[in-house]
Protein backbone atom coordinates (compact mmCIF):
# COMPACT_ATOMS: atom_id res chain seq x y z
CA UNK A 1 0.00 0.00 0.00
CA UNK A 2 1.41 3.33 -1.05
CA UNK A 3 0.56 6.44 0.89
CA UNK A 4 0.78 9.69 -1.00
CA UNK A 5 1.71 12.93 0.65
CA UNK A 6 -0.95 15.56 0.86
CA UNK A 7 -0.65 18.51 -1.47
CA UNK A 8 -0.54 21.33 1.04
CA UNK A 9 -0.05 23.93 -1.66
CA UNK A 10 -3.27 23.08 -3.49
CA UNK A 11 -5.15 22.94 -0.20
CA UNK A 12 -3.78 26.37 0.73
CA UNK A 13 -4.76 27.90 -2.61
CA UNK A 14 -8.23 26.43 -2.36
CA UNK A 15 -8.67 27.95 1.06
CA UNK A 16 -7.23 31.31 0.02
CA UNK A 17 -9.24 31.60 -3.23
CA UNK A 18 -12.74 30.17 -2.83
CA UNK A 19 -14.67 28.98 -5.82
CA UNK A 20 -16.26 31.99 -7.52
CA UNK A 21 -20.00 32.29 -7.89
CA UNK A 22 -19.68 33.51 -11.48
CA UNK A 23 -18.51 31.72 -14.62
CA UNK A 24 -15.73 33.29 -16.67
CA UNK A 25 -13.60 32.04 -19.57
CA UNK A 26 -11.17 33.45 -22.14
CA UNK A 27 -9.28 32.68 -25.32
CA UNK A 28 -5.60 33.35 -24.54
CA UNK A 29 -3.70 34.27 -27.72
CA UNK A 30 -0.38 34.88 -25.93
CA UNK A 31 0.02 38.52 -26.97
CA UNK A 32 0.50 39.97 -23.49
CA UNK A 33 3.30 39.83 -20.95
CA UNK A 34 2.57 36.95 -18.53
CA UNK A 35 3.56 39.10 -15.56
CA UNK A 36 1.14 41.90 -16.51
CA UNK A 37 -1.62 39.88 -18.16
CA UNK A 38 -4.86 40.05 -16.17
CA UNK A 39 -6.33 36.99 -17.91
CA UNK A 40 -3.39 34.74 -16.98
CA UNK A 41 -3.56 35.98 -13.42
CA UNK A 42 -7.26 35.15 -13.16
CA UNK A 43 -6.58 31.66 -14.53
CA UNK A 44 -3.77 31.11 -12.01
CA UNK A 45 -6.14 32.12 -9.21
CA UNK A 46 -8.85 29.80 -10.47
CA UNK A 47 -11.30 32.60 -11.27
CA UNK A 48 -11.40 31.92 -15.01
CA UNK A 49 -10.93 28.94 -17.31
CA UNK A 50 -9.13 28.87 -20.64
CA UNK A 51 -10.81 28.14 -23.98
CA UNK A 52 -8.97 26.65 -26.94
CA UNK A 53 -8.84 28.40 -30.28
CA UNK A 54 -11.87 27.23 -32.28
CA UNK A 55 -13.93 26.38 -29.21
CA UNK A 56 -17.30 28.15 -29.00
CA UNK A 57 -18.83 29.59 -25.85
CA UNK A 58 -22.53 29.38 -24.98
CA UNK A 59 -22.63 32.41 -22.72
CA UNK A 60 -22.06 36.13 -23.29
CA UNK A 61 -18.94 36.75 -25.39
CA UNK A 62 -17.37 40.21 -25.02
CA UNK A 63 -15.71 41.05 -28.35
CA UNK A 64 -14.97 44.29 -30.25
CA UNK A 65 -16.42 42.80 -33.46
CA UNK A 66 -19.94 42.37 -32.06
CA UNK A 67 -22.91 44.24 -33.47
CA UNK A 68 -25.14 44.33 -30.41
CA UNK A 69 -24.36 46.24 -27.22
CA UNK A 70 -24.42 44.47 -23.87
CA UNK A 71 -27.49 45.37 -21.79
CA UNK A 72 -29.29 44.16 -18.64
CA UNK A 73 -31.43 42.01 -20.93
CA UNK A 74 -28.47 39.60 -21.12
CA UNK A 75 -28.38 39.11 -17.35
CA UNK A 76 -30.10 35.72 -17.38
CA UNK A 77 -27.75 34.29 -20.01
CA UNK A 78 -24.72 35.65 -18.17
CA UNK A 79 -25.89 34.14 -14.89
CA UNK A 80 -26.50 30.70 -16.38
CA UNK A 81 -23.67 30.34 -18.93
CA UNK A 82 -21.20 32.98 -17.76
CA UNK A 83 -19.11 35.42 -19.81
CA UNK A 84 -16.05 34.99 -22.03
CA UNK A 85 -13.44 37.48 -23.22
CA UNK A 86 -10.53 37.46 -25.68
CA UNK A 87 -7.08 37.85 -24.11
CA UNK A 88 -5.12 39.71 -26.79
CA UNK A 89 -3.27 42.98 -27.33
CA UNK A 90 -5.17 46.01 -28.61
CA UNK A 91 -2.25 46.73 -30.94
CA UNK A 92 -2.56 43.27 -32.56
CA UNK A 93 -6.32 42.87 -32.98
CA UNK A 94 -5.81 42.58 -36.73
CA UNK A 95 -3.94 39.30 -36.21
CA UNK A 96 -6.79 37.62 -34.34
CA UNK A 97 -8.77 34.92 -36.22
CA UNK A 98 -12.19 36.08 -35.08
CA UNK A 99 -13.88 33.23 -36.90
CA UNK A 100 -12.34 30.79 -34.39
CA UNK A 101 -13.44 32.69 -31.29
CA UNK A 102 -16.91 33.76 -30.24
CA UNK A 103 -20.34 32.28 -29.72
CA UNK A 104 -24.04 32.86 -30.23
CA UNK A 105 -24.34 35.88 -27.93
CA UNK A 106 -21.49 38.20 -28.94
CA UNK A 107 -21.81 41.58 -27.24
CA UNK A 108 -20.05 44.94 -27.46
CA UNK A 109 -19.28 47.03 -24.37
CA UNK A 110 -20.44 50.68 -24.35
CA UNK A 111 -18.25 53.69 -23.53
CA UNK A 112 -16.02 53.06 -20.50
CA UNK A 113 -12.62 54.34 -19.41
CA UNK A 114 -9.74 51.97 -18.63
CA UNK A 115 -7.89 52.11 -15.31
CA UNK A 116 -5.18 49.51 -15.91
CA UNK A 117 -1.55 50.74 -15.94
CA UNK A 118 -1.09 50.04 -19.67
CA UNK A 119 -4.07 52.05 -21.01
CA UNK A 120 -4.99 54.23 -18.05
CA UNK A 121 -7.52 56.93 -18.96
CA UNK A 122 -8.15 55.64 -22.48
CA UNK A 123 -11.78 54.95 -23.48
CA UNK A 124 -12.75 51.47 -24.70
CA UNK A 125 -9.24 50.11 -23.95
CA UNK A 126 -10.28 47.70 -21.20
CA UNK A 127 -8.33 44.57 -20.36
CA UNK A 128 -9.84 41.17 -19.55
CA UNK A 129 -10.68 41.73 -15.90
CA UNK A 130 -12.10 45.20 -16.58
CA UNK A 131 -14.28 43.83 -19.39
CA UNK A 132 -15.64 41.11 -17.11
CA UNK A 133 -16.30 43.59 -14.31
CA UNK A 134 -18.10 45.94 -16.71
CA UNK A 135 -20.27 43.11 -17.99
CA UNK A 136 -21.19 42.10 -14.43
CA UNK A 137 -22.07 45.70 -13.48
CA UNK A 138 -24.22 46.28 -16.57
CA UNK A 139 -26.04 43.00 -15.90
CA UNK A 140 -26.72 44.23 -12.34
CA UNK A 141 -24.23 42.03 -10.52
CA UNK A 142 -21.84 44.54 -8.90
CA UNK A 143 -20.83 41.97 -6.26
CA UNK A 144 -19.33 39.79 -8.97
CA UNK A 145 -17.47 42.81 -10.36
CA UNK A 146 -15.91 43.55 -6.97
CA UNK A 147 -14.97 39.89 -6.55
CA UNK A 148 -13.21 39.60 -9.91
CA UNK A 149 -11.40 42.94 -9.42
CA UNK A 150 -10.26 42.18 -5.86
CA UNK A 151 -6.82 40.74 -6.81
CA UNK A 152 -5.90 43.89 -8.78
CA UNK A 153 -4.74 47.18 -7.30
CA UNK A 154 -6.60 49.25 -9.90
CA UNK A 155 -9.92 47.45 -9.42
CA UNK A 156 -11.42 50.02 -7.07
CA UNK A 157 -10.20 52.82 -9.34
CA UNK A 158 -11.97 51.33 -12.34
CA UNK A 159 -15.26 51.13 -10.48
CA UNK A 160 -14.94 54.66 -9.09
CA UNK A 161 -14.15 56.48 -12.35
CA UNK A 162 -16.95 54.63 -14.19
CA UNK A 163 -19.47 54.49 -11.35
CA UNK A 164 -21.88 57.09 -12.79
CA UNK A 165 -22.07 55.75 -16.31
CA UNK A 166 -22.21 52.13 -15.12
CA UNK A 167 -25.22 52.95 -12.96
CA UNK A 168 -26.90 54.56 -15.96
CA UNK A 169 -26.22 51.52 -18.14
CA UNK A 170 -27.56 49.19 -15.46
CA UNK A 171 -30.77 51.25 -15.27
CA UNK A 172 -31.54 50.59 -18.95
CA UNK A 173 -33.80 47.79 -20.18
CA UNK A 174 -32.33 46.80 -23.55
CA UNK A 175 -29.48 47.54 -25.92
CA UNK A 176 -31.37 50.45 -27.53
CA UNK A 177 -31.58 52.26 -24.22
CA UNK A 178 -27.91 51.55 -23.56
CA UNK A 179 -26.93 53.07 -26.92
CA UNK A 180 -29.05 56.13 -26.19
CA UNK A 181 -27.47 56.52 -22.77
CA UNK A 182 -24.03 56.17 -24.30
CA UNK A 183 -24.80 58.87 -26.91
CA UNK A 184 -26.06 61.26 -24.23
CA UNK A 185 -22.95 60.64 -22.15
CA UNK A 186 -20.70 61.33 -25.13
CA UNK A 187 -22.56 64.56 -25.92
CA UNK A 188 -22.14 65.65 -22.33
CA UNK A 189 -18.40 65.01 -22.45
CA UNK A 190 -18.05 66.93 -25.72
CA UNK A 191 -20.07 69.86 -24.35
CA UNK A 192 -17.97 70.06 -21.20
CA UNK A 193 -14.80 69.90 -23.25
CA UNK A 194 -15.99 72.69 -25.57
CA UNK A 195 -16.96 74.87 -22.62
CA UNK A 196 -13.57 74.35 -21.04
CA UNK A 197 -11.87 75.36 -24.30
CA UNK A 198 -14.11 78.40 -24.82
CA UNK A 199 -14.10 79.65 -21.25
CA UNK A 200 -14.42 83.34 -20.50
CA UNK A 201 -11.81 85.68 -19.11
CA UNK A 202 -12.55 84.47 -15.60
CA UNK A 203 -11.43 80.95 -16.50
CA UNK A 204 -8.10 80.37 -14.79
CA UNK A 205 -7.02 77.89 -17.48
CA UNK A 206 -7.28 80.46 -20.30
CA UNK A 207 -5.13 83.17 -18.69
CA UNK A 208 -1.88 81.36 -19.30
CA UNK A 209 0.70 80.90 -16.61
CA UNK A 210 -0.51 82.98 -13.69
CA UNK A 211 2.88 82.67 -11.99
CA UNK A 212 4.35 85.20 -14.45
CA UNK A 213 1.43 87.63 -14.33
CA UNK A 214 1.46 90.93 -12.38
CA UNK A 215 0.59 90.39 -8.77
CA UNK A 216 -2.57 92.22 -7.77
CA UNK A 217 -2.04 94.32 -4.66
CA UNK A 218 -4.68 94.19 -1.97
CA UNK A 219 -5.43 96.11 1.19
CA UNK A 220 -4.10 93.24 3.29
CA UNK A 221 -0.74 93.36 1.51
CA UNK A 222 -0.51 97.13 1.99
CA UNK A 223 -1.30 96.75 5.67
CA UNK A 224 1.39 94.08 5.97
CA UNK A 225 3.94 96.41 4.33
CA UNK A 226 3.01 99.20 6.74
CA UNK A 227 3.38 96.85 9.68
CA UNK A 228 6.81 95.70 8.44
CA UNK A 229 7.96 99.31 8.07
CA UNK A 230 6.75 100.13 11.57
CA UNK A 231 8.44 97.09 13.05
CA UNK A 232 11.68 98.00 11.25
CA UNK A 233 11.52 101.47 12.74
CA UNK A 234 10.95 100.01 16.19
CA UNK A 235 13.99 97.77 15.83
CA UNK A 236 16.19 100.79 15.02
CA UNK A 237 15.04 102.77 18.04
CA UNK A 238 15.14 102.17 21.78
CA UNK A 239 12.70 104.05 24.02
CA UNK A 240 12.02 106.51 21.18
CA UNK A 241 15.72 107.16 20.49
CA UNK A 242 16.62 106.59 16.84
CA UNK A 243 19.74 104.40 16.39
CA UNK A 244 20.14 104.43 12.61
CA UNK A 245 22.45 106.48 10.38
CA UNK A 246 19.73 108.49 8.68
CA UNK A 247 17.50 110.96 10.35
CA UNK A 248 13.85 110.29 10.95
CA UNK A 249 11.15 111.63 8.68
CA UNK A 250 10.58 115.36 9.10
CA UNK A 251 7.74 116.59 11.18
CA UNK A 252 4.75 118.28 9.54
CA UNK A 253 5.78 121.71 8.25
CA UNK A 254 9.53 121.00 8.16
CA UNK A 255 11.39 120.71 4.82
CA UNK A 256 12.48 117.27 3.75
CA UNK A 257 16.31 117.17 3.51
CA UNK A 258 16.20 114.17 1.18
CA UNK A 259 13.73 115.66 -1.28
CA UNK A 260 16.37 116.93 -3.78
CA UNK A 261 18.81 114.11 -3.18
CA UNK A 262 19.99 112.01 -6.08
CA UNK A 263 18.16 108.65 -5.90
CA UNK A 264 21.29 106.89 -7.18
CA UNK A 265 23.54 108.42 -4.51
CA UNK A 266 24.62 105.67 -2.16
CA UNK A 267 26.24 107.95 0.43
CA UNK A 268 24.39 108.72 3.63
CA UNK A 269 25.59 112.24 4.51
CA UNK A 270 28.12 114.99 3.70
CA UNK A 271 30.54 113.57 6.25
CA UNK A 272 30.67 110.36 4.27
CA UNK A 273 31.42 112.36 1.13
CA UNK A 274 34.30 114.16 2.86
CA UNK A 275 35.64 110.86 4.14
CA UNK A 276 35.57 109.38 0.65
CA UNK A 277 37.40 112.42 -0.73
CA UNK A 278 40.12 112.07 1.91
CA UNK A 279 40.55 108.39 1.08
CA UNK A 280 40.78 109.21 -2.61
CA UNK A 281 43.48 111.84 -1.91
CA UNK A 282 45.55 109.39 0.13
CA UNK A 283 45.34 106.77 -2.57
CA UNK A 284 46.49 109.17 -5.27
CA UNK A 285 49.33 110.37 -3.06
CA UNK A 286 50.58 106.88 -2.39
CA UNK A 287 53.86 105.57 -3.79
CA UNK A 288 52.16 103.75 -6.62
CA UNK A 289 50.67 106.94 -8.06
CA UNK A 290 53.45 109.38 -6.99
CA UNK A 291 56.08 110.91 -9.35
CA UNK A 292 59.63 109.77 -8.37
CA UNK A 293 61.22 112.93 -9.91
CA UNK A 294 59.13 115.43 -8.03
CA UNK A 295 61.10 118.14 -6.17
CA UNK A 296 59.87 119.74 -2.99
CA UNK A 297 61.15 123.26 -3.91
CA UNK A 298 58.62 125.42 -5.76
CA UNK A 299 61.20 126.80 -8.27
CA UNK A 300 62.70 123.46 -9.23
CA UNK A 301 62.06 122.13 -12.68
CA UNK A 302 61.37 118.58 -13.49
CA UNK A 303 64.47 116.77 -14.66
CA UNK A 304 64.21 114.53 -17.65
CA UNK A 305 64.46 110.88 -16.92
CA UNK A 306 67.68 109.26 -18.09
CA UNK A 307 67.31 105.85 -19.58
CA UNK A 308 70.55 103.80 -19.52
CA UNK A 309 71.80 102.30 -22.76
CA UNK A 310 71.15 98.60 -22.91
CA UNK A 311 74.33 96.51 -22.69
CA UNK A 312 74.86 93.99 -25.44
CA UNK A 313 76.68 90.74 -24.64
CA UNK A 314 80.24 90.30 -25.94
CA UNK A 315 80.47 88.38 -29.21
CA UNK A 316 81.56 84.79 -28.90
CA UNK A 317 84.27 83.64 -31.29
CA UNK A 318 83.27 80.56 -33.26
CA UNK A 319 85.18 77.38 -32.60
CA UNK A 320 84.92 75.18 -35.64
CA UNK A 321 86.75 72.23 -34.09
CA UNK A 322 84.57 72.15 -31.05
CA UNK A 323 80.96 71.22 -30.71
CA UNK A 324 78.39 72.67 -28.35
CA UNK A 325 78.59 71.11 -24.98
CA UNK A 326 82.15 69.83 -25.41
CA UNK A 327 84.60 69.74 -22.49
CA UNK A 328 88.26 68.99 -21.69
CA UNK A 329 87.48 65.33 -21.15
CA UNK A 330 86.15 65.12 -24.68
CA UNK A 331 89.36 66.74 -25.99
CA UNK A 332 91.50 64.17 -24.18
CA UNK A 333 89.47 61.29 -25.60
CA UNK A 334 89.82 62.73 -29.11
CA UNK A 335 93.62 63.04 -28.70
CA UNK A 336 93.90 59.43 -27.53
CA UNK A 337 91.87 58.29 -30.49
CA UNK A 338 94.11 60.24 -32.87
CA UNK A 339 97.20 58.62 -31.35
CA UNK A 340 95.78 55.19 -31.95
CA UNK A 341 94.96 55.98 -35.55
CA UNK A 342 98.37 57.51 -36.22
CA UNK A 343 100.34 54.80 -34.41
CA UNK A 344 102.92 52.76 -36.45
CA UNK A 345 102.05 49.07 -36.60
CA UNK A 346 104.56 46.80 -34.78
CA UNK A 347 105.86 43.79 -36.78
CA UNK A 348 105.91 40.36 -35.18
CA UNK A 349 109.33 39.00 -36.26
CA UNK A 350 108.72 35.58 -34.74
CA UNK A 351 105.54 35.18 -36.69
CA UNK A 352 107.15 36.30 -39.95
CA UNK A 353 110.02 33.78 -39.57
CA UNK A 354 107.56 30.98 -39.00
CA UNK A 355 105.60 32.03 -42.04
CA UNK A 356 108.75 31.94 -44.18
CA UNK A 357 109.66 28.44 -42.97
CA UNK A 358 106.15 27.18 -43.80
CA UNK A 359 106.40 28.61 -47.29
CA UNK A 360 109.80 27.04 -47.93
CA UNK A 361 108.60 23.66 -46.74
CA UNK A 362 105.59 23.87 -48.99
CA UNK A 363 107.78 24.74 -51.95
CA UNK A 364 110.19 21.86 -51.23
CA UNK A 365 107.38 19.34 -50.92
CA UNK A 366 105.87 20.61 -54.14
CA UNK A 367 109.17 20.17 -56.02
CA UNK A 368 109.66 16.59 -54.76
CA UNK A 369 106.17 15.65 -55.78
CA UNK A 370 106.69 17.00 -59.26
CA UNK A 371 109.98 15.06 -59.66
CA UNK A 372 108.28 11.84 -58.75
CA UNK A 373 105.68 12.38 -61.39
CA UNK A 374 108.35 12.71 -64.03
From TrEMBL:
<feature type="compositionally biased region" description="Acidic residues">
    <location>
        <begin position="265"/>
        <end position="275"/>
    </location>
</feature>
<dbReference type="Pfam" id="PF04068">
    <property type="entry name" value="Fer4_RLI"/>
</dbReference>
<comment type="similarity">
    <text>Belongs to the TDD superfamily. TSR3 family.</text>
</comment>
<dbReference type="GO" id="GO:0005737">
    <property type="term" value="C:cytoplasm"/>
</dbReference>
<feature type="binding site">
    <location>
        <position position="109"/>
    </location>
    <ligand>
        <name>S-adenosyl-L-methionine</name>
    </ligand>
</feature>
<keyword id="KW-0963">Cytoplasm</keyword>
<dbReference type="InterPro" id="IPR007177">
    <property type="entry name" value="Tsr3_C"/>
</dbReference>
<feature type="domain" description="RNase L inhibitor RLI-like possible metal-binding">
    <location>
        <begin position="23"/>
        <end position="56"/>
    </location>
</feature>
<keyword id="KW-0690">Ribosome biogenesis</keyword>
<keyword id="KW-0539">Nucleus</keyword>
<dbReference type="InterPro" id="IPR007209">
    <property type="entry name" value="RNaseL-inhib-like_metal-bd_dom"/>
</dbReference>
<feature type="domain" description="16S/18S rRNA aminocarboxypropyltransferase Tsr3 C-terminal">
    <location>
        <begin position="60"/>
        <end position="186"/>
    </location>
</feature>
<keyword id="KW-0808">Transferase</keyword>
<protein>
    <recommendedName>
        <fullName>18S rRNA aminocarboxypropyltransferase</fullName>
        <ecNumber>2.5.1.157</ecNumber>
    </recommendedName>
</protein>
<feature type="region of interest" description="Disordered">
    <location>
        <begin position="193"/>
        <end position="374"/>
    </location>
</feature>
<dbReference type="GO" id="GO:0106388">
    <property type="term" value="F:rRNA small subunit aminocarboxypropyltransferase activity"/>
</dbReference>
<feature type="compositionally biased region" description="Acidic residues">
    <location>
        <begin position="326"/>
        <end position="336"/>
    </location>
</feature>
<feature type="compositionally biased region" description="Low complexity">
    <location>
        <begin position="362"/>
        <end position="374"/>
    </location>
</feature>
<dbReference type="InterPro" id="IPR022968">
    <property type="entry name" value="Tsr3-like"/>
</dbReference>
<keyword id="KW-0949">S-adenosyl-L-methionine</keyword>
<feature type="binding site">
    <location>
        <position position="124"/>
    </location>
    <ligand>
        <name>S-adenosyl-L-methionine</name>
    </ligand>
</feature>
<feature type="compositionally biased region" description="Acidic residues">
    <location>
        <begin position="218"/>
        <end position="231"/>
    </location>
</feature>
<feature type="compositionally biased region" description="Basic and acidic residues">
    <location>
        <begin position="246"/>
        <end position="264"/>
    </location>
</feature>
<keyword id="KW-0698">rRNA processing</keyword>
<dbReference type="GO" id="GO:0030490">
    <property type="term" value="P:maturation of SSU-rRNA"/>
</dbReference>
<feature type="binding site">
    <location>
        <position position="86"/>
    </location>
    <ligand>
        <name>S-adenosyl-L-methionine</name>
    </ligand>
</feature>
<dbReference type="GO" id="GO:0005634">
    <property type="term" value="C:nucleus"/>
</dbReference>
<dbReference type="GO" id="GO:1904047">
    <property type="term" value="F:S-adenosyl-L-methionine binding"/>
</dbReference>
<feature type="compositionally biased region" description="Polar residues">
    <location>
        <begin position="287"/>
        <end position="299"/>
    </location>
</feature>
<dbReference type="Pfam" id="PF04034">
    <property type="entry name" value="Ribo_biogen_C"/>
</dbReference>
<dbReference type="GO" id="GO:0000455">
    <property type="term" value="P:enzyme-directed rRNA pseudouridine synthesis"/>
</dbReference>
<feature type="binding site">
    <location>
        <position position="38"/>
    </location>
    <ligand>
        <name>S-adenosyl-L-methionine</name>
    </ligand>
</feature>
<comment type="function">
    <text>Aminocarboxypropyltransferase that catalyzes the aminocarboxypropyl transfer on pseudouridine at position 1191 (Psi1191) in 18S rRNA. It constitutes the last step in biosynthesis of the hypermodified N1-methyl-N3-(3-amino-3-carboxypropyl) pseudouridine (m1acp3-Psi) conserved in eukaryotic 18S rRNA.</text>
</comment>
